[in-house]
Amino acid sequence: MKFLHAAIIAIALLALTGCGGSKSSGLPATQNAPKFATATANDFVKNFSQTANDYAAAITARDVAKINTLTPQLTEILNKRHAAAKGLKLDEAKKLQVWVNSVMQQVTDAAAGVAVESKSMSVGPPIKKKRTKKTK
User: Fold this and answer.
1) Calpha distance 136→55 (Å, rounded)
2) DSSP-assigned letter for residue 123
3) Of the spans 5-9, 40-44, 61-65, which averages the highest pLDDT?
4) Measuring CA to CA, which residue among 85, 90, 13, 3 is closest to residue 44?
5) How confident is the model at residue 85 (pLDDT cuts 50, 70, 90)?
6) What gap in Å lies between CA 76 and CA 47, rounded to an integer?
7) How far apart are the C-alpha atoms of 93 and 113, rounded to whole Å?
8) Sign of the torsion angle spanned by Cα atoms 53, 87, 76, 116
9) Percent of the chain, pLDDT > 90?
């Protein structure tokens, strides 16, 4: 899971090298967040949804300061997912894990979309070096 966090951060920082920005209305998976039998799981879903949406918005806006602030918060919340799943039945625990994976994939996709957008905004072709003849 640490690799996933590092990959998200790397993609986010890559996305920040471009110009412009676009607005995000929230991740689709968080708009249809599941409900669970325990208050702990429902609180986790609520906190994780809010933080993931804020994180995705920061990536889209290329707000490095906000990304740096939200990264440890997102990691801390993700570390609580096992505690949130403790009181759930096996099928609900799996549902929670699938949903968390879906949200994280959407965060990654948002970052990748910004990176692609930034790449397409580059000005002109890359500069090529002229070859010089070697003298004998």
Assistant:
1) 59
2) -
3) 40-44
4) 85
5) very high
6) 11
7) 30
8) negative
9) 54
